[in-house]
Amino acid sequence: MLLIVRLHDVQLLAFRSLANAICKTLLGAIFANVWQIAQRLAVQYKRIWPFTLLYRPVLYRRYASKDAEQEYWRAVEKAKQRLQASNAHAPVEGLLVYYVPKLLPEYRDAKQEDPEAKEEYISPRTFCKWHRMVFPGQVRHTSPPQSRCGVLTVMQQRQPTLTEAVTALKSYSSRDRREMRRIARLQSDHAVFHRIDTSARYGALWRTWLASKGPDAAVVFAPTAARGA
User: Fold this and answer.
1) Which spans in 88-171 are helix H?
2) How far apart are CA 127 and CA 144, in angstroms?
3) Cβ contact 165:159 at 8 Å
4) Which residues are CB-neighbours of 56 under 8 A, at least 6 positions away?
5) For range 171-182, the mean pLDDT
6) pLDDT tens-digit series, residues 103-116
7) What DSSP assignment string belongs to 134-146?
8) Which is it for the CA torsion 124, 129, 131, 136, positive or negative?
9) What's the burial of 192, exposed, middle or buried (CB within 10 Å: 0-12/13-18/19+)?
């Protein structure tokens, strides 16, 4: 048993010696190659470096003769004259430098739109919403209106139906319907039809509108006379 252990130690020492020898040999070869390459580069640099010291960048250049220099200045003077002649910023009398065309009337004049020129239409539901906002304390029943005056008096006593709103809308002008649409947009449908907001300020807005709008212009077409009359 002791003999086997000693043999194992001897083999281990031999393997370590062989590994060290291989490493030394490999590192020595690599170092030798690197050293040879460095020596070659040093030799090449010794041959080249005197020429690098002789090179200097040319900061300026001289002409070969006085005539060549004068020819250069004559060419410069001609180029300067051509450049001055083509200068667009030079003050020249009688030359129109800029021109601003006259704008067309449709771009220059402000357009004034007639509020009655365009007919305003609103839906019966919008009319019912407006009526609930302007007259929030009225109740709803089924007695139909009789005339235009009847529409105003009866409608102020109750909330109209959608069928009654179609007839009632014919009694208002285009400006009135436009104001109805504006007032109806001030509150949501849920707040109006569920009677969440029953403020009287919308009625005040409508009364202020009636007091300030002025008379409505009515266009009446007379029947044409019969032929031969």
Assistant:
1) 105-108, 124-134, 148-155, 162-169
2) 16
3) no
4) none
5) 89
6) 666 655 566 666 66
7) HSTT-B---PPP-
8) positive
9) buried
